TrEMBL record:
This is DUF4397 domain-containing protein. It comes from the Bacteria. Residues 13-128 form the DUF4397 domain. It comes from Clostridium aestuarii. It holds the Pfam family DUF4397.
Amino acid sequence: MFSPLFFRTPMTAFVRVFHASPDAPPVDIYANGKILVKNLKYKYFTEYLKIPAGNYNIKVFPAGKTTNPVIDTYLSIKPETIYTVAATGMLKDIKLLPFIDPILPMEDGKTYVRFGHLSPNTPRVDITLPDGTILFDDVGFEEITDYIPVAPKTYTIQAREAGTSNIALTIPNIKLKPNRFYTIYAVGLLGKKPPLQVLIPLDGNSYIDF
């Protein structure tokens, strides 16, 4: 069903990069001086890249540039670990946040979902169903929740200002398939452009085999 690329290799990890900075241009990303990602645009994810575990100097440049990086930082990548590394925040204070996509036991027939808050100007939120049932509560910018199991079906969810009934965003028709891990990422800007929205990729722990 899934590509043999993702079979276990000792001392390697899988990393995808997510451009979630709403006012940053497309970027090129270098790891220890070598190009890793080219022309990654806002709201886009790379595929999961298989890389050796270890310590990396990461430089992020506007696409096509090789001077004055907007990010110059270090990441430590553990073996047999799956990461989503998000470029987040406004351009003036952009940073890289590594989120682990953990390998977890899965109850057959269930779907597992979590929420990541990457909207710089949106306050702390509760993620709810339309009837007010809270899935995730009081999540702040640059925080990510644990996974929770849910029934696989089509959902409408709402982001509400934490502790209130004030709805910041309603997202209909979210189809969640069984035996999968998903993260609901909130990106963009509340009341400004680019607008607040969610992206719901399939996480690598759904199919990468360690």
